[in-house]
Amino acid sequence: MKKVPALSGLAVLAGCASSPKDVKPTYIPDTAYSSMDCQQLGQEELKEGDTLEALTNKQRRAHKTDTWGVLALGVPLSEMTGSDVAGVLAREKGKMEAIQRMQIAKSCPGAGVAVVPATLD
Fold first, then answer.
1. Burial environment of residue 99 by CB neighbours within 10 A (0 to 12, 13 to 18, 19 or more)
2. Mean pLDDT score of the chain, rounded to an integer?
3. Which of 15, 96, 120, 121 is packed most tightly, with the most Cβ within 10 A?
4. CA gap 100, 114 in Å, rounded
């Protein structure tokens, strides 16, 4: 009988928003950016970096809210509030990887040394 509460607790935790660092990128083909030159790729990288940072922060908040919601109320709150953006975050991470792969393929200055924002952890 003691296993039932433990298993139901695991089920609740499984419904929690993922930590941003645990969200894996969705594959985006490099061809999505193949028509861009190095300058355009750099601009796109900056734009996507801002979007990625905002989504990472939103996902981090959803993860923390769920952690506290489960501890205090026994339910993850992000699903009820719609604050879990893991799917969108995964696509943005994939876009950033595709841009960086294309920069390397085109031998753009600084390609391969770009660091994904530190807020992704």
1. buried
2. 77
3. 96
4. 8
Specify the residue for token string 């506290």: 68
Q: Which residues of the chain have pLDDT under 50?
A: 1-14, 114, 118-121
Here the contacts of 67-73 (C-beta below 8 Å, separation 24 or greater) are 67/16, 70/12, 70/13, 70/16
Is the separation of the CB atoms in 115 and 61 below 8 Å? no
pLDDT at 106: 95
Q: Which of 44, 25, 29 is nearest to 89 (CA)?
A: 25
15/90 Cα distance (integer angstroms):
17
Is 111 within 8 Å of 100 (Cβ atoms)? yes
